[in-house]
Amino acid sequence: MTQDRHHSSHLFDDARILLNEVLDELDTSEDVRQRLLQPNLSLQVGVHVRMDDGSLKVFPGWRTQYDTSLGPAKGGIRFHPSVDQQEVGTLSFWMAVKCAVLGLPYGGGKGGVQVDPKALSSLELERLSRGYLRAIADVIGPDRDIPAPDMNTNATIMGWMSDEYDAIQRDQIPAALTGKPIALGGSLGRVAATGRGALQVLDLWAERNERKPEDTTIAVQGFGNAAYHFARLAHQRGYRIVAISDSKGAIHHPEGLDPDPIKEEKTRNQRLKGMVYCENSVCEHKGAKTIEQEELLALDVDVLALGALENQIHVDNVESVRAGLLLEIANGPVTREADEALAKRNVPVLPDVLANAGGVVVSYYEWIQNRSGEYWEEDSVNQRLAERMTREAQRVMERAETRNIPYRRAAYLLGLERISEAILARGQCHRCE
Ligand code: NAD
């Protein structure tokens, strides 16, 4: 793998190519293209953290609002050493498309801090989270931009950030962030929502292709918030999870794995030490063979569920992929070139902007609950999620099948059509001189 492929400017270039192609096909106004080729706002901040040893460290961070024609920006916050402005910008563009595909009244946003959170103590992590929130506080809010968790951030971190936002505003404004702990206005069902939504999209695809869960094998890359809940729920539904990987290794067991005991083993140390991050890995599980992480991507399975990072299937390994279907639970796990190669081989890809949208859908429900002050039962949240995911996934799949185009293309057509309509409805003089 070349360094270049991992560079996030690549991600943004690829996103722009797809955007241009889809806009050409939509034949919409040139204004729409001009407005969508770059983000509306990209704020860079330095996050100042007093470390436990008394030293001061400054971590670079960003918050981007890509397009807000459909409503306030919405998108997660990522803590990772490779985060940069281009990556955050690309992720915010994908969020704009995703919110539109799901018919949500939101634009796209994203944020991140370039940091290795696993190297921080729990208090340093809390200071970093509060410091980042203080740095971006002027551009967020329930009607402007509503952050949520993403890679290496979770409900605990959203709780600290929500508390910091309330302190700055001298008020209680739970709707300014989503993915919060239940005690601070979080929604029941939010934690598992991304995995649950991905399973609903897979279920719909299986139903349309007359495939039964018990006859379907799945390899899952990643075992964090999104991928773990997907694996757990897919196992419950009767799918056979034959392989799982995380950042430290991978395991394979053709007879099928139960994700829950694996999760239990992986987090045992974390609970004992009371730390936010765990040091253990899926490899601790005794009932399966350990394989290389890259081997998992080439297993002969029915479904390869990619739930870890971007750029995992690329031009150098796409030919070794033997799965019958790819399910993108992570954002951007398949590069543009790999996507084209898979399309040529007629290997379908259920794209991120549809398959991992369950999280933002339930974030939307959390926001509604915070604003109305009325809180819903978990069953009600899950039922609304299922209805919306199935309805919009059906729209995407029908369009793809009727026009004989890849699911990603169909999803982008649907999303960009909705964004275009909002841009045009705002008039020619909208925020321009
Ligand atoms: P997370 O930090 O909880 O989990 C990431 C997982 O990936 C971890 O299990 C980690 O061990 C694993 N991983 C890292 N490097 C790996 C490698 N080389 N091989 C295999 N596994 C590896 O993050 P998350 O929230 O689950 O997010 C994962 C992806 O899903 C990201 O792309 C994120 O943007 C996307 N996503 C998450 C949500 C959500 O609600 N959490 C919603 C939409 C999209």
What does this structure look like?
This protein is α/β, with parallel strands linked by helices and 433 residues long. The protein has 2 domains: 2-173, Leucine Dehydrogenase, chain A, domain 1 (Rossmann fold, 3-Layer(aba) Sandwich); 193-350, NAD(P)-binding Rossmann-like Domain (Rossmann fold, 3-Layer(aba) Sandwich), CATH 3.40.50. The protein contains 15 helices and 12 strands. It has helices at 3-6, 8-26, 30-36, 85-101, 122-136, 155-169, 193-208, 225-237, 259-273, 293-297, 336-344, 352-355, 358-372, 378-403, 407-425; strands spanning 41-50, 56-67, 73-80, 107-114, 145-149, 217-221, 240-246, 249-252, 289-291, 303-306, 325-328, 349-350. Strands 9-8-7-6-10-11-12 form a 7-stranded mixed beta sheet. Strands 1-2-4-3-5 form a 5-stranded mixed beta sheet. A hairpin with a 2-residue loop joins strand 7 (240-246) and strand 8 (249-252). The model is unreliable at 1-5 and 271-279 (pLDDT under 50). Residues 149-152, 194, 221-227, 245-247, 293, 307-309, 329-331, 356, 359 line the site of nicotinamide-adenine-dinucleotide.
Give the SSE map.
Layout: H1 3-6, H2 8-26, H3 30-36, E1 41-50, E2 56-67, E3 73-80, H4 85-101, E4 107-114, H5 122-136, E5 145-149, H6 155-169, H7 193-208, E6 217-221, H8 225-237, E7 240-246, E8 249-252, H9 259-273, E9 289-291, H10 293-297, E10 303-306, E11 325-328, H11 336-344, E12 349-350, H12 352-355, H13 358-372, H14 378-403, H15 407-425
Parallel strand pairs: 3-4, 3-5, 6-7, 6-10, 10-11, 11-12
Antiparallel strand pairs: 1-2, 2-4, 7-8, 8-9
Helix pairs in contact: 2-4, 2-15, 4-15, 5-6, 7-8, 7-13, 7-14, 13-14, 14-15
This protein binds nicotinamide-adenine-dinucleotide (NAD).
